Amino acid sequence: MAAPKNSGYVQTSDPSRPRSDAVIPFRELVPPPGHPRIKGIEHCNALEWCESRRQIEAPAWLINRLAAPNLEKPYKGFTSDGHVEEGVYHYAEDEGAPVEAMTEAAEALLALLSAKQKKATQFESVEADEIRLWSNPELYVNPGGLRLDECTAEVQSAVHDILKASFSKKGYEKVLGCCLTNDFLGYLVNGRSVMNEHSYNFRLFGQPDLQRPWGYTFFGHHLCLAVVVQGRRLVIGPTFMGAEPDRIDEGPHAGLRLFEVEELLPLKLMQSLSPELQAKATLSEKMDGESLPADRWNPFDERHLAGARQDNRVVPYEGCPVKLFTREQQDQIIALYEAFNEYYPEQVLRHRVQNFKEYLDQTYFAWIGEHGDEDPFYYRIHSPVAFMELDFHCGSKFVGVVSVYFLGLLYIVFLTNTSPARCHIHTTNRLPNRGDYGKALLASL
Hints:
- By secondary structure, this protein is an alpha+beta fold.
- The protein contains 11 helices and 13 strands.
- The protein has one domain.
- The longest helix has 20 residues, at 169-188.
- The chain is globular.
- Residues 1-22 are annotated as: Disordered.
């Protein structure tokens, strides 16, 4: 079944081009009560909302694509040409991963769970296929594990203790910011039973241990994390982080904004390139589905390529080789890598940055859209050890659920803009050549 062209949720009053000069333009795009994209959400929990979306052609197509029976098998890995480049990840014996704190936090969670919860939550090892069953929409497609908004506050806190133990302080704050922004979106559309601070799933893989590999996934609307730890080595990826709208403008978290570096630094970089390098980097000046090849755009992912169910995707290197950039422009590419990966603890991040720098001459920067101060755009940075994307998204023209500003995959949107808007961001972060899910790390043991 081909991907549908639109969601069927468009109304004549939906703006074809949102204002971009307002400080908080997303307020003009919040659907009014009764709009077909949110109709009935106030009466649904997450499972009921997902079932209601199955009755509509476009979301039904997406739900089917995300369903567990359709997980791509066997796992091959995200590559540039269909062949895995071996030996590109260089793991040190001790990279400073906080394995002791992570293990202690995971064991504390297990001590709280009933036998039934443990059976649903804990899988035999990080090699289990279920580690790949994450997805970004608010659609509750594959129940299983711990659904935090169905758990006690004590269990919720214990899961967040694992996140805190795994990430840097800034990284955890970004993760929490995604959760809070999702809650804000639920408030805006009167759908907090579907989208809230705890509408996320947690699954544990393997037995928490100081030496043997184990990990977890934490995923839901606009936030998906796959984490594997082995001894003092840590791999985080793939990840998706995003936000719709791009900031919270009222309530106790007013002023919260995510992905500022990921949004503004690449625009500055693109504007600084010579016209010749800008032309090399640009894949298309237009962002719509009519201007891009069929395999490079669909109404759920729009332009990004590294979301859910893309574990085996082949994406060739495209755009401008970073080796043609000035030293200052190359430093900006490195700074963007650091921003996309700031969830790593500081010592681990240093190892990841060094590995990225080793392949700077094989790194490409690609752009879709224009590059004026207020233009929406897409970009990606692609190398043998990195695949990072940011995309600004539409609202009602193509799909029908909400998203929030920022990191990779599939979704249904709530804001009503029918052209990409700077108030709705998705970012994805892949580890090509079987780096995802710690596969390259496990192969090196």
